[in-house]
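$ ./design --mode recover --in tokens.txt
reading tokens...
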């Protein structure tokens, strides 16, 4: 080896070493901030977060395996470098709903680029007392309960190997995010827990929900206005109300919903499989387009496929003015299994803005061993393969 070459060689070795050291995140162990097993994690987590978030190289906050209690907390950016919150323990919320400030989330992440939340932790919202106080099915003016998680204005973030349990209200609210992925995320709540939607998405782009199990009392996943490029793959829903686009069209300032793929999912004993619901009555046209529902298995689902543009619970609207939500470019393909009702496919579109470019391909759903029937209104679907015939 000549001298020049060995200098290059040593220099390369040095670079390799330096980069591998730099790639390791700086670890902030919660025990150094006063976090004790079986204790309250709130102030130690807040302090560790503050330091880790100010770190100029990638950081990792470590919460070792144990049980902890945690009061309401906000973990905000911007942070100076990517940040990981690795929690191995079980975390319990205050049980009393009055210990929360209004409808805020229990754990609220905001304004962070490159957050990873991981570690196998279970977050228990201890909602059973709160559920009894929920009267939102009777009145709109009901007490707002806290959600387990809020992710607001986050970019490039990953939530993986995390369980959200018994939330008092929605489990997760995703707002104003770009590129956020939920991977191996588990949601658990009883079928009878009110308004415990699994993951609600609004005004966000590039949201992925992958390889996850969601059993809860309300929607498995719901897409509010401004949801764009959402993909849901290999998710099992049930119990609950299935995957829902909407409700939309209740307010005037809503943004379009564009780009949804729901693929390789299973629905077990849910009220709905895949649903699009819009309110009659608004005056501004809101487009909902490019939705693909593909390779789905339904097991004893009450309404496996449903478009309802006359959604109006408790007669809170005027059905006289048709919905102005324009549904177009929707594909339902390779959907099979069992329906808990004879009418397995309902496509009720708006008389004001009929559904356009809806494709139905190979839909094999059975009720008590016989093919389901379909009800359709204001829609002329393109049909491929074996599909229930529309009646109106
Ligand atoms: C996230 O990305 C948007 C759009 O690129 C940007 O305006 C915003 O500042 C970013 N937020 C954070 C917390 O980095
Ligand atoms: C999305 O975020 C992940 C995690 O930070 C990152 O690895 C990936 O490159 C991002 N994708 C895009 C398209 O920005
Ligand atoms: C689907 O998700 C489950 C976890 O819920 C995982 O065990 C399985 O490997 C995933 N399947 C595929 C094909 O990725
Ligand atoms: C989806 O299912 C198909 C067929 O069942 C399979 O070939 C494919 O690998 C699956 N994809 C994912 C991402 O699970
Ligand atoms: C099927 O669903 C119906 C209605 O949701 C429910 O009453 C029934 O117990 C379910 N059957 C099975 C076998 O799970």
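writing sequence...
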């Amino acid at each position: 080896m000549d001298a020049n070459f060995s200098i290059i060689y040593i220099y390369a070795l040095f670079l390799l070493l330096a980069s591998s050291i730099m790639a390791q995140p700086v670890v902030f162990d919660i025990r150094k901030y006063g976090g004790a097993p079986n204790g309250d994690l709130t102030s130690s987590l807040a302090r560790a977060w503050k330091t880790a978030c100010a770190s100029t190289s990638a950081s990792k906050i470590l919460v070792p395996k144990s049980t902890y209690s945690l009061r309401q907390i906000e973990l905000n950016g911007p942070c100076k470098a990517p940040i990981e919150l690795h929690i191995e323990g079980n975390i319990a919320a205050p049980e009393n709903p009055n210990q929360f400030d209004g409808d805020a989330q229990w754990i609220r992440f905001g304004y962070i680029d490159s957050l990873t939340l991981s570690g196998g932790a279970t977050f228990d919202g201890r909602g059973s007392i709160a559920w009894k106080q929920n009267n939102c099915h009777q009145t709109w003016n009901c007490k707002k309960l806290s959600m387990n998680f809020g992710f607001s204005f986050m970019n490039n973030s990953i939530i993986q190997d995390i369980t959200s349990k018994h939330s008092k209200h929605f489990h997760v609210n995703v707002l104003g995010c770009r590129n956020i992925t939920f991977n191996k995320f588990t949601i658990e709540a009883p079928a009878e827990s009110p308004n415990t939607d699994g993951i609600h998405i609004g005004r966000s782009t590039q949201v992925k929900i992958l390889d996850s199990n969601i059993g809860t009392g309300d929607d498995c996943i719901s897409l509010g206005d401004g949801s764009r490029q959402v993909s849901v793959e290999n998710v099992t829903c049930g119990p609950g109300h299935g995957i829902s686009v909407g409700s939309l069209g209740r307010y005037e300032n809503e943004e379009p919903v564009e780009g949804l793929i729901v693929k390789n999912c299973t629905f077990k004993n849910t009220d709905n499989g895949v649903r699009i619901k819009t309110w009659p009555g608004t005056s501004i046209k809101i487009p909902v387009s490019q939705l693909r529902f593909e390779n789905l298995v339904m097991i004893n689902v009450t309404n496996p496929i449903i478009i309802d543009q006359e959604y109006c619970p408790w007669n809170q609207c005027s059905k006289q003015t048709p919905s102005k939500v324009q549904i177009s470019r929707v594909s339902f393909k390779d959907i099979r299994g069992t329906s808990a009702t004879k009418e397995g496919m309902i496509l009720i579109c708006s008389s004001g803005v009929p559904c356009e470019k809806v494709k139905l391909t190979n839909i094999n759903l059975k009720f008590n061993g016989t093919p389901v029937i379909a009800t359709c209104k204001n829609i002329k679907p393109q049909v491929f393969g074996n599909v229930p015939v529309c009646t109106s």
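exit 0
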